[in-house]
Amino acid sequence: MTYPNEELVRFLLEAKKNTYASGSGSSSLPSRPGVKELSYQDGEYAYLDSYFGEVHFAGQEIVWHQGKAVWGMNYFGFTADPVEGFPDFLLEALKRVPAEAPYRGPETFLQGEFAYDCRWSGRSSSIYRPRDDPVQRERNVQPGIPWRHPSVRLS
Questions:
Q1: Which pTM value belongs to this model?
Q2: With CB atoms counted within 10 Å of each terminal CB, which end of the chain scores lower, N or C?
Q3: Distances 22 to 7, 13, 91, 119 between C-alpha atoms, Å
Q4: pLDDT at 154 over 50
């Protein structure tokens, strides 16, 4: 399967809206101290959003398709101060994530006294496209044909 594709973007938007942006996403058991993890699954796709912090935060989103990581994104954000009403505003902004830029929320969103600003660099193709595997290229393995590095042992 080639990425990006409409199926992946549809799942990604659905996952985002059903985890943090919903205000009640399905929490996973944390894999690291201090991390909050929200997961979502639909069919052959699985999503995990892991983040640290509250007012200043950093996180990572990963999407798997058929058990293989096919999309990932790191993010960082902050608020000026904890302000009453801001958490609800942030949830509303994150629900508005656009399909043409499925990162966190819309590029800008204003509501009342709050402003949401989302910036990214690169093109969507560089954000979606998996990097070439130098070992795969070197061994001339064709995409879609399973191959494991000799040092990887499955139990």
A1: 0.71
A2: C
A3: 21, 12, 7, 22
A4: no
Tell me 104's DSSP state.
S
**pLDDT at residue 136 tops 50:** no
Reduced to 3 states (helix: H, G, I; strand: E, B; else coil), residue 51 is strand
Structure tokens at 13: 């938007």
Alpha-carbon distance of 146 to 53, in angstroms, equals 38
pLDDT tens for each residue of 65-94: 999 999 888 888 877 777 788 888 888 988
Which residues touch 113 (CB under 8 Å, ≥6 apart)? 85
Report the Cα–Cα distance between both ends of the chain, in Å, rounded. Answer: 27
Segment 35-75, tens digit of pLDDT: 999 999 999 999 999 999 988 889 999 999 999 999 888 88
Where do we find the tokens 């509501």?
111
CA distance 57 to 26: 19
User: Collapsing DSSP states into helix, strand and coil, what is residue 84?
Assistant: coil
